[in-house]
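INFO worker-7 received task bundle
INFO bundle size: 2
INFO processing item 0
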Amino acid sequence: MTRPIPLRKRLLVRLLITSVLIAICSVAATAWLAVETTTRAIQEEQGQVLTEDMDILRQLSGYAATHRDWSGVGKTVRALSDRTGRRIALTAPDRTPIADSETRDTALPPRAAAAVDPLHTDTFTEPGAQRTGIDPRAVGPFRLPRAERERVRLLAEKRRACFSINGVETTITQMASGRSVLVDEDGTVDGGQVPTPCADGLLNTPTATEEKALAELNTYAGDCLKGVGGKFPSLFAATVDFTDRSMLTRYLGRKAETGIDTTRDQDKKAQECVDRARRQQLEPYVAPAAELFLGRGDSAVPHFDMSAANKAKVTGVAGLVLALTVAVTVLVATRLVRPLRALTHAAQQPPEQHVRVPVTTQDETGILAVAFNDLADRRERMEAQRKAMVADIAHELRTPLTNIRGWLEVTRDGVVDPDRELLASLHDEAVVLQRVIDDLQDLAAADAGTLRLHREPVRADELLEQVVAAHRVAAEGAGVRLHMSVAASQGSQGSHGSDGTPWLDADPVRMRQALGNLVSNAIRHTPADGTITLSCRRQGDEVVFEVADTGSGIAPEDLPSVFERFWRAEKSRSRRTGGSGLGLSIVRQLVTAHGGTVTVTSELGTGSVFTLRLPDAG
């Protein structure tokens, strides 16, 4: 039995002590790290507040882009305030209140956090406004009515199906104006390169509403574009870019029609004209510019500063702690790793050497070393058993085969005539060989877990009667008396029958084989005028079978080996008279497969008792 490990020598306790020592020595360095971490945490919190501010500005800019005035913004302001826990107030540029999440008497912060103007949007606040500075949700006269929106959606469905047939997978996304566009996996509008069969131009053709709005836009931009084009005013015109998810308008340089190239400066001025006209066109459709005030928006970021002397102290202490940590860790790790290295070295040796390791500690590592040595002992014993089993199998098969071959050779040479007596002898040798092979096959199936059991309800008394009847002739031939006894369970009904006879849920063929092996073994070891008794009784939730004989018995030192393969109590007995040495091993495997156990008690000169315990079917 393994002795308990003293508390001070347990690996866990030693590791805890080491950790506590390192933690105590790290306090000074941790103080400085705490200051830096606190500063960083406050900065991150401030960054979170900035993110909330940007989201509030984006929400209000979206409201302004889709409404002509601020009359209904109060509900949106209160919802944003409840979600963020911030005070939100909107005023006109002259500080005339528009909406406020607080009461009217609450003073505003000293300055506005931002201006809310969908026609002049911060490009970092609202995605999609990077090119023009106009909120992409502001579409004004470009918003499609329901009929046109449905017609464009059907065109998009048709093009998406065409794209799919040509190996391009896209999804349909609706723009703020209500126009449907195709977007591929990379986010490219219209799937990037349009397959030739799908390039019908219908989807990207402006609708009547868009044509009308575009004509109005060109009217607004007309004078400005004429100034850019100089004597070639027809070079420039405004158009809608449907390859962008936002409602982007830009100039169209008609170079292909005129054959005249424009300069980069002309292109830039033309785009400025279009953007200016776009703002002029959208102005009646969006809310006027407003000032946004946010509570807690002007707090400064705290900062902790350290003097040069303190920094030097912290640096010195950190260096000392680092050196101490390395030294202690190396010392403890070396002591812990040394036995593990010995185990690793032993495990890497060739298996046939069966190397053991010295047990130098009483902690978990020592227990591991003991377990490793036990494993090496078991492996050595198993290797010896394997070699002995191979030799025994070879001998078991060689003996009958040698006899068969010898008789066949002398018969072939004409030395002996193949009479009935010779054939009977050859048949006996073949039966011995077949018995050994069958026994090995049963053991192999049991070891591999492929031994099949055909279970059915079996009466214990009928099972014993069949075994006795099968071996009565062999017992009488050996001068041995064969008896059977079944003890009925008093007061037991139901699944045990009215007479109290025990029942089993078992494979009757395999159970007859197991009990038959025990009876055959008892007959071989019981002298003439001896007795073999087969009995059965119900004990608790088990059915107990016993095979008792008055034979020679088994020595106490041999009892642990009784169920090992090829074991014989009398080494001098031949394979024909002493069996193959596999019968008892098969008994153990069959009983185990039924969920039971088998044990043996014996006394030299008195006899042996084999006991089988199996689950009761009741």
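INFO item 0 finished
INFO processing item 1
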Amino acid sequence: MILTEDRLQDLLDKSLAELPHGTEWAVTLEGSIAEGFGNPSSDIDFLLVARHEDDLPVMPSLLFVDGRRVEIRTQSVRQLADRLRAVEEGAARPGRLSEDLLNRCQRLLHSHPLRGHALIEEVKALLPVERFRRITADWWAHRARQSLRHAMALLCLGESDEAVDWTRAGLVQTVKSWAAGLGETYLEPKWLSLQLDRAGRADVRDRYWQLTAADPAPGDAEAAHAHLTACLAFAEEVGLTGVPRRAERLTVERVAGVTTWQTGDRVHVIRGRREVFALGEDAGAVWRSLVLGRPLPRVLAAAAATGVADPGPPLATFLRYGLVRLVWKGGGTVTPSLPLAAPPGPVTPPPSTAQPLLSVRGAAVGGPGAVDLMPLPADRFAAAAMALVWSNVVVENAVEDLTGALRRGQWRVAELTARRAVHAALRGLFSAHGVHPLPPDPDLVRRLDLLPPATGPIGARAGELLRRTVDSTQHGDTLLADLRAYIGQVRDTVGAGSFPLSFDSADTWRATLQVGHDWLRIGAHLDAQLPIEEARDLLAGNGAQPHQAT
């Protein structure tokens, strides 16, 4: 210990003088100084223990005493006993033991009593140190297995640089497990060098540092494989089981709450009924090739058979985003984690910035291998897509009505029908950019500031068309031609250029129904707002008209 007993007692007296009086505390020194690792910059961690009935704050008070930083924590005997009991009860499932819980208990069990020794020792006796060593060793071993299995998977997927990082993490966790079995249970890895020196096994220590110094060059897959092989051999030598070099023990499995649907050629994946990921052409091909429950090497081979040049990175992305999961045969889901880091779990990337966001054939993506997160909740995304499809149906219907009105010289009917077509096209434009619910039709032109500046010319043209009047065949023909050009401009912008001429023939109407049905299925699954109530009948009929003979 770098501080004498007298110096610690002096610091304790001065610290207690800054706290409210009235409680008799037992006091113990925790942390790196109690472990014998500290240095002049290390803070002094005092834990004050009393038989309080109420819970005491977990958050420490930070003091500055005689040039030293002092942390004061207060806990009741019951709180400490509950923690120690939770560690014992969770020992059978080390993957579920929280790092904070284990760390709090470790600091207590390895603390140095300063006052009220009997009470401190009474609490410590609730979990024998020898038992805690085994629990901590198993906790580290579980994490080492997860990291090394994950590294194995990443190498299989061609992600060698990331595999090296996880191999390094697994190496640290392996040696921490070994050291914990010898009593070196302090969790934070920064003192690992001193722990290995104190463990007294120079052969293990030297081999560990030799492996740590081996640093495969970025992009050197062969060296990454060799490094993992060496680390797995070392892990086996120090007693870590459950990590043979057999990638076929890794299987690709489904994740609860992940749903797939396809519109046109675009594959969409919904995570947890909330988030929509749109897949580019290559990523979509890899996704469609997945047969869940198969070993990872076979899944990768099937993905390669699709013609995608490098299917590993898209599959690795699916894993990172929690769209699929890896399971080690007999060992559960592979969930790698690091100490003192962000908790493990699926990554959520920044939302896509594509504009417009979607088309009638699916969401916009950034490239063939893209797995892009849509910046809308899943139900709003589906509702906007359905509104986009329906707006185009309304446009087709309005153009048909306009054409008939012009043939009969119904000029006022033509004016109103043309405005209906303009508003419907604008609804499609807003929907394609993810605006939902939509502004009322009269406000659409004035709400174009919600959309990117590039849509300005469309807005100007819409405003001009909405002001048109018709009182002759010549004006009517000009209006129809200008309206068709405007509709074409909007559809080109939102990726609806191939939308069927809905009311032209039985075939084009069937094609329109099919486009609508693709979006209705997922919209209904997500309880999204339907564009019209009649859409439920189309859904019930699986895309067919309700009265059509089969």
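INFO item 1 finished
INFO post-check item 1: The first helix runs from residue 5 to 16.
INFO post-check item 1: Residues 532-547 have pLDDT under 50 and may be disordered.
INFO worker-7 idle
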